[in-house]
Amino acid sequence: MKWLKSELERIKEQNLYRRLFHFESPPGKVLELEGRKFINFASNDYLGLASAASLECLRRWGAGSGASRLVSGSFTVHRELEKELARLKKTEDALLFSTGYMANVGVISALAGKGDLILSDSLNHASIIDGCRLSRADILVYNHCDLEHLESLLKENRGRYRRCFLVTDSVFSMDGDLAPLDGLFRLKRLYGAVLIIDDAHATGVVGWSSLELFGLTPDDTTVLVGTLGKALGTFGAFVAGSSLLREYLINRCRSFIYTTALPPFVACQTLENLKLVPERMALLRRRLSFFRNLTGINSPSAVFPYLCSSPERALALSEFLRERGFWVPAIRPPTVKQSRLRISVTAEHTEEELRLLWSSIREFELTL
Ligand code: PMP
């Protein structure tokens, strides 16, 4: 398989080579690498809950789950968490998945099929793109958050398809901006479509659900995907929607059916973490508004993009910050069009740390 080597050479030539760093410390605000400490601005652990650990959950349920949910891997604590997530998301019910990637891939490919149309935002997450491809429906990509473009595509295709699906991130993972959910709701109703919203970076950050920001409540043509591995601090994911949707997914969704269940202790720990969310979310809000005011970066979420003029400059800034003890990743094409630092602020960062990070960025701009 020598072609692997030449393919990797090609990736290196394009400056797109990726490697792993193995931190010596557990997940948290401070990362240790080769004996050095870094303040972590690269985490999705927005509420600082990833390090929470209840021995009771682990003792009661063990580390594994033993089987898929439909065989013998479904436990009362799974169901308890599903009901709690549904309550928080204001839906009838919810279904747990093993990861957010699997939730998106599974729900989209289970609902949409040949003869259907999916309209997908141009900046949607890779798992949404893969779900769309797997569905074998026709896919049209509308310009990022552009309701006019979306509506023109809906008009053009009216009556040509069996069913129509709109799919979007609520908070976009690399820009931190918010989808126009009120407009998407209006179009979904007007054109009889189903709206699938990926709330991965919104859950526990902008509220329990992004819909709260718009005063909207989910109806039976709204599907909400959420992850447990970001603000909620554990691992896994869920789809929240109608009871009918849950029943359908249990019967038809391949990434739910053919995989080992989320370990019940993870569900147990998530239930514990949920109790801490309101207080942490209030603290996070204070930190976000502090950072917004400090930097002038107007993000409605915990993701702050700091745009750079070139991939090389983004890498140089990331390196400069690393020298000063900050871990902030440079994100480059093709992941994004314009290179940037993706700064994620969490409830654990102090105002002093945020100030120091920003003054280091200013120092780089003034001196290099
Ligand atoms: N959706 C979005 C918008 C994401 O950013 C991510 C994770 N980066 C996922 C889904 C996948 O979630 P998970 O990490 O639980 O697989």
Automatic annotation (TrEMBL):
Protein name: 8-amino-7-oxononanoate synthase
Catalytic activity: 6-carboxyhexanoyl-[ACP] + L-alanine + H(+) = (8S)-8-amino-7-oxononanoate + holo-[ACP] + CO2
Enzyme Commission designation: 2.3.1.47
Matching PANTHER family: 8-AMINO-7-OXONONANOATE SYNTHASE, CLASS II AMINOTRANSFERASE/8-AMINO-7-OXONONANOATE SYNTHASE
Assigned keywords, A-Z: Acyltransferase, Biotin biosynthesis, Pyridoxal phosphate, Transferase
Functional pathway: Cofactor biosynthesis; biotin biosynthesis
Naturally occurring in which organism (per UniProt): Thermovibrio ammonificans (strain DSM 15698 / JCM 12110 / HB-1)
Gene Ontology annotations of biological process type: biotin biosynthetic process
Record CDD domains: KBL_like
